[in-house]
Model the fold of this input.
Amino acid sequence: MSLLDQSMGNIARDIPGATAVLHRFKLDFCCGGAGTLRDAAEKKGLNADVLLADLERLQQRAEHDGHGKALERLDSLTRHYQLPDGACNTWQALYKGLQILRNDLMDHIHLENNVLFTQVDGQQGGVESTP
Done:
């Protein structure tokens, strides 16, 4: 289901940082939280595409934060990649592969958060709304 068809209350609850976007657009997600984002945008004459892009960007960032938690869990489970005493070749290969996976994922997260998202943010040119 598109974010435009979800209630503003659910969006405010489920997407970290969404309340700031909704405030910028002067949308009531508290008392008017049962209404859909689409209806609220239409009533205010807002550019729904810009609003949607801002919220989707936040949603993507929240999903990438899950990667960080997964990496922390992996670090914990492997005792920061310390092999068990007497680890056989299979264990050694597994830990080596996990370290490669971790490094690749860290590079991926870095590129998205610090290169791609910053370029997209710069191209948006701020929030557009109609009074």
